[in-house]
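tl;dr need the bound structure. longer version: we got a ligand (threonylcarbamoyladenylate) that a collaborator sent over and nobodys looked at where it sits. i said id run it. heres the input, straight from their email, havent touched it
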Amino acid sequence: MQIKDSIQIGAKYIQEGKLVAFPTETVYGLGADALNPFAVAKIFELKERPTFDPLIVHIANLNDLQRLVLQPDDRIYKLAERFWPGPLTMVLPKSTLVPDIVTSGLPTVGIRMPANQIALDLISASKCPIAAPSANKFGRISPTTAQHVRKQLPNVDHIIDGGKTTVGIESTIIRLTNSGFQMLRSGVITQEELEAVIPFDKSRKTEEMVAPGMLKSHYSPKKRMLIASKNTLLNINKSKAGLISFTGELDEGFTNIIRVSTQNDLRDYAVQLFEAMHTFEDDNQIETIIAEEVSETGIGKAIMDRLRKAEYSWRKG
Ligand code: TXA
Ligand code: MG
């Protein structure tokens, strides 16, 4: 099917209150008409997602921002001008137009304009903002291809296949306060880049402000996943392990290696990470997934956040 036709079908389904999986630049989203609470309820059902975990609303133009948000101020437009379309979600006071089910009853709504033409065309053709979480089962590995969506959500009404996503990990989420912004989730747009536009609000520790739905365990493969440490490497059977390799320094002794970057670029790690996890999850020869650690600066922060959450329940168990 031509991509244009697939988008048209998707838009028709969204208008009918059905669910449509679609690509964004970060990961695939599971979309519904954000203004239709019955359609949004189906997202929680299909994903098996707890209703305390609010959804991000995707828009294709700034007029929608005005309808969804209470009195957007200049700072929001400055950020939008610099980072939208792109992988930045802003949590802002919501207007009455946004149904409570979208925000899990919170007075704020997370909004972003994705940098993916298929996503933008779908939103425009649907003539409504689209609420969409990542298109995976709750707590599992996020999808960066249409196949990943099919694997976890075979019953979705329609999937628009736009190939592999170009950023690979979810958007950076911030919240605006009186004195600046606070980070709720790290992503490829870093705190430093945001600070160049508006001040960072240091008034509260980030750990105290975890966004709802930001649980310790997430992105979890069905088989054991561990971040590589000296101890881990000594205690595993390397022939039955899959290594997600960044620098190549840990490769010795492994036979199953996915090298995520050839030039030590953390952006490549972000693009390849979830796909590598899916590949090893699907490989019956592999018992354990090992991921190389990176230093926690810039995009490294977002990568380590995903790795820690992916290994969380396995490290404990
Ligand atoms: O890149 C992305 O952001 C992808 C694509 C599809 O756009 N979406 C995504 O959605 O990652 P999801 O549902 O997997 O993660 C959304 C997270 C929620 O778990 C919650 O922590 C936070 O966004 N969030 C949403 N609305 C919020 C609000 N009003 N206040 C605080 N946090 C919020
Ligand atoms: Mg998610």
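gonna send this back to them w/ a short note. The CA atoms of residues 27 and 144 lie 5 Å apart.
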